Amino acid sequence: MQDADIVARFDGRPTVKLTFSGFQTSRADRAVWIGSELGYELDGYESYGRGGDFRLTLTRDDSPPARRRAMATLARMQSTGSWLPYAPPWVVTMPYDPAYIHPERAARVRRNLKAYEGWHPSQLIISCCVAAAVLLPFAWLARSSLALTVLAIVGGFLCLTAAVIGPRYIKNWQRKNLELLERFRQQQAAQFPVPPPPPAANQGRSLT
């Protein structure tokens, strides 16, 4: 799936569904980025099959910043033939800014958060405790083999450790990613500011 194929899908329709399988999954973040430039927001992530295939749902964002960004992208496509907000190569055209968040990085973070949206820390705790409950008794049953016993004990304690610190780690991961997305929204807002509303027609008139 090339850029032109992805761009063609974002033609103003309310919802766009993109399916990625095999090697195409590496293009998912770029597709989310393209959709964002054309005024769409990632709204759904659905896994299917057993090979890591998934389907993304993007909906049209009618907020003023998104519409201004989409209009700027369409104007750029008409004048330069490219949807990119910069002309390649990246290093030459974009000065280094440590605070700048690349749109494709923000797209990857948004996709990861959407993929884990329905996930709850209790799922990790239960899975790790079940695995530990299997491995530790197995260590006793396999006590005739030193290697198997050590592996089972180590694996069991690793599962218990993951059950304790795993939810906290994932919570911090989600918080940092949400903070990154908030900084990216501020970055976009600075690039496409929304003009203030016009003053009221009767503002400033004295009452008679």
Q: Can you tag this structure with a few keywords?
A:
208 residues, single chain, 2 domains, mainly alpha, 57% helix, three-stranded antiparallel beta sheet, 7 helices
Commentary on this structure:
The structure is a single chain. With 208 residues, this protein is mainly α. It has two domains: 1-95, no CATH class; 119-192. 57% of the residues lie in helices and 11% in strands. It is built from seven helices and three strands, in the order αβαββααααα. The chain has helices spanning 3-9, 28-37, 64-80, 90-93, 103-115, 121-141, 146-191; strands at residues 15-20, 40-48, 53-60. The protein has a three-stranded antiparallel beta sheet with strand order 1-3-2. A hairpin with a 4-residue loop joins β2 and β3 (53-60). α5 packs across α7 and α6 (121-141) runs antiparallel to α7 (146-191). It is elongated and about 80 Å long. The mean pLDDT is 83.
> How large is the share of residues in beta strands?
5-15%
Judging from the principal axes of the Cα atoms, what is the shape?
elongated
Which strand order spans the largest sheet, edge to edge or round the barrel?
1-3-2
DSSP helical segment count: 7
Weakly predicted, low-confidence segments? none
Question: Count the strands?
Answer: 3
Average pLDDT level:
83
Number of domains: 2
Radius of gyration from CA coordinates: 24 Å
The profile of the biggest β sheet is:
3 strands, antiparallel
Question: Helix amount, in percent?
Answer: 55-70%
Structural category = mainly alpha
Gap from first CA to last CA: 67 Å
Query: H/E element string?
Result: HEHEEHHHHH
